[in-house]
Every structure is written in C-alpha cells, then in structure tokens.
Amino acid sequence: MAGKYEALREHLKNCKFAEFELTFAKIEMIIGGPLPKSAYTPQFWANTSDLTQPQRKAIAASGFESFLISGSKKVKFKRL
C-alpha cells in the first residue's frame, strides 16, 4: 500500500500502546502534509467496512480503529 497515509499505517503498526490520541498536527507531521478539510468530520475517521478511503484502509491495515474526538483536533486510535 503506497500513498499519503502509508507513513501513518507504519506509525500505528509500530506503536506499542493499545489506545492513544494523536493531534492533527502530529498526524500531518507523520504523513508529511496537511489533512484534508474532511478530516474535521467524524465520517473521515469512521470505522466502516468501506475501505475505499485511503486513510481508513491504512488505519485498518495497522490493526487499529479511529475516532475523531468531538470538539478537538485529535483522533483516538484503539487497537482491534
């Protein structure tokens, strides 16, 4: 899997924690560029069986699920 979110997949895959949060700024640093405006919506991070979205595919491939923390620029990642 190559693409914008490959670095996020690798970062999550190598993480030792079962659950943690990352700020949008940290995620942007990991992926080497800005997140799209749609990242501010829960749907962007939704855990669905539709893995056509590259960020969802990368997160699922790392063994995590993700949740936008309401009212913040943070995402919670939880190991499956």
Topology, please?
Elements: H1 6-13, E1 19-23, H2 24-31, H3 42-45, H4 54-61, E2 64-68, E3 74-79
Can you describe what's shown?
The chain has 80 residues and is an alpha+beta fold. The chain contains 4 helices and 3 strands; from the N terminus they run αβαααββ. The protein has helices at 6-13, 24-31, 42-45, 54-61; strands at 19-23, 64-68, 74-79. Strands 1-3-2 form a 3-stranded antiparallel β-sheet. A hairpin with a 5-residue loop joins strand 2 (64-68) and strand 3 (74-79). Helix 1 runs parallel beside helix 4.
User: What general form does the structure show?
Assistant: globular
Strand content: 15-25%
Helix content: 25-40%
Parts with pLDDT < 50 across at least 5 consecutive residues: none
Strand arrangement, major sheet = 1-3-2
Structural class, from secondary structure content?
alpha+beta
Structure annotation, total helices:
4
Terminal Cα span = 20 Å
Average pLDDT metric: 94
Report the sheet with the most strands, covering strand number, pairing sense and barrel closure.
Answer: 3 strands, antiparallel
Order of SSEs, N→C? Answer: HEHHHEE
**Rg over C-alpha atoms, rounded to the nearest angstrom:** 11 Å
Question: How many beta strands in the DSSP annotation?
Answer: 3
Task: Name its key features.
single chain; 80 residues; alpha+beta; three-stranded antiparallel β-sheet; 4 helices; 35% helix
Give a short synopsis of this structure.
35% of the residues lie in helices and 20% in strands. It is an alpha+beta fold. The radius of gyration is 11 Å and the shape is globular.
